[in-house]
Each structure stands twice: as C-alpha cells, then as structure tokens.
Amino acid sequence: MEFEYNLDNLKKASEFILKNSKNNLLLFSGVIGAGKTTLIKQLCKDIGVLDVVNSPTYSIINVYKSKEKPVFHMDLFRVKKDEIDDLGLLEYLESGSKI
Fold first, then answer.
1. 7-94 adopts what CATH topology?
2. What is d(CA 54, CA 7) in angstroms, rounded to the nearest whole number?
3. What global pTM score does this model have?
4. Residue (of 8, 4, 30) closest to 17 by Cα position
5. Where are the alpha helices (DSSP H) in 1-99?
6. For 16-57, what is each residue's pLDDT tens digit?
C-alpha cells in the first residue's frame, strides 16, 4: 500500500495506517530526510509507546515500551543479508510485537 503524507496530515496518516494494517509488521521506505521517523513517532504515540522515539540509524534496532507489548523500530538500510540471523530478526518477527 502506498500513502503520501505531510506534516499537516501526520495524525490522519497514522490513523489510516493503523486502521488498515492487517498485521504487526510495517515497512517504510524513503530517502534520508523523507520523514519516516517523524511518521513512526506519530504511529508510536498513537499505539501508546511510553518511551522517546528516535531514529535507529546507528543502533539498527530500538525497543520501546508500550501499554501492551514492546515495539521494535528497525533501520535495516545498512544490514547485509548474511547479518540478518545475527540480529535475531526471526525472533523479533515471532514475538507478536509491533515492528
């Protein structure tokens, strides 16, 4: 699904995504500075994340506390195929948490 948004409709974009997502895995793609983390901050706010949300550009994976299960925010841009197992991505996917 493709959806365009801007700062004026960020809340509406977040609500649309949460309403129309069929599972706990969301993938965002865009150039650096496109606003992916800004949108993810709004999504996290709307699902009840309790922590401060930051870009995981250097940490690769950020884990946030929420009212329910943890939320995993990943930036896999620099991750190579052979590093996937080392990161434990399968375990994250099987956790049932939002990613």
1. Rossmann fold (3.40.50)
2. 17
3. 0.84
4. 4
5. 10-20, 36-46, 84-87, 89-94
6. 999 998 888 898 888 888 889 999 999 999 999 999 999 998
Distance in angstroms (rounded) separating the CA atoms of residues 18 and 26: 10
Q: Where are the domains of the chain?
A: 7-94
Residue 17 phi/psi, 5-degree rounding, is: -60, -50
For CA atoms 28, 25, 18, 61, the dihedral sign is negative
* Amino acid at residue number 5: Y
Q: How many alpha carbons lie under 13 Å from residue 97 in its C-beta half-sphere?
A: 22
* Phi (first) and psi of residue 50, to 5 degrees: -95, -20
Give the span between the Cα atoms of 72 and 25, in whole angstroms.
10
pLDDT band for position 1 (cuts 50, 70, 90): low
pLDDT bin (cut points 50, 70, 90) of residue 99 is: low
